[in-house]
């Protein structure tokens, strides 16, 4: 079962930055890049670092600890040491709020 959850106001996430949020038992990172919002699992699958604290470059987020990279739109890993991707969640904007669809 999926549900859409209001996670933040649009202005709470600065352009070019990420921020982590708790939704139930999940920790999800929201990124604001080029006017678009992307949501994915916050924990890097390699060692558990917060991806919300990582760097953003060319449509990817890089892990702040060991520099594994993940595509913001697909969650696919692009750079070692991670060997798998992260889950991506659909994002919608409505009435000034960022909604994330979670499973």
Tell me what the structure shows.
This protein is mainly beta and 103 residues long. It has one domain: 3-layer Sandwich (Rieske Iron-sulfur Protein). 0% of the residues lie in helices and 50% in strands. It has no helices and eleven strands. It has strands at residues 3-9, 17-23, 26-33, 36-41, 55-57, 60-62, 69-71, 77-79, 88-89, 91-94, 97-102. The strands form three sheets. The chain has a four-stranded antiparallel sheet, with no helix packed on it. The chain has a four-stranded antiparallel sheet with strand order 5-6-7-8, with no helix packed on it. A three-stranded antiparallel sheet has the order 1-11-10, with no helix packed on it. A hairpin with a 2-residue loop joins strand 3 and strand 4 (36-41).
End-to-end separation in angstroms reads 6 Å
Report the sheet with the most strands, covering strand number, pairing sense and barrel closure.
Answer: 4 strands, antiparallel
How much helix is in the residues?
A: under 10%
Supply Rg. Answer: 13 Å
Structural class: mainly beta
| Helix run count | 0
Order of H and E elements: EEEEEEEEEEE
What share of residues are in beta strands? over 45%
Name the strands of the widest sheet in spatial order: 2-3-4-9
Q: What is the molecular shape? A: globular
CATH homologous superfamily placement: Rieske [2Fe-2S] iron-sulphur domain
The low-confidence runs, each spanning 5 or more residues with pLDDT under 50, are none
Count all strands and give the number: 11
Predict the CATH topology.
Answer: Rieske Iron-sulfur Protein
């Amino acid at each position: 079962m999926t549900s859409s959850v209001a996670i933040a106001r649009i202005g709470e996430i600065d352009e070019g930055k990420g921020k982590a949020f708790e939704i139930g038992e999940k920790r999800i990172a929201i990124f604001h890049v080029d006017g678009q919002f992307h949501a994915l699992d916050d924990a890097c699958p390699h060692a558990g670092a917060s991806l919300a604290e990582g760097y953003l470059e060319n449509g990817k987020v890089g892990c702040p600890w060991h520099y594994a990279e993940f595509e913001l739109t697909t969650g696919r890993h692009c750079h070692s040491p991670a060997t798998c991707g992260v889950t991506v969640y659909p994002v919608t904007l409505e009435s000034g709020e960022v909604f994330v669809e979670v499973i």
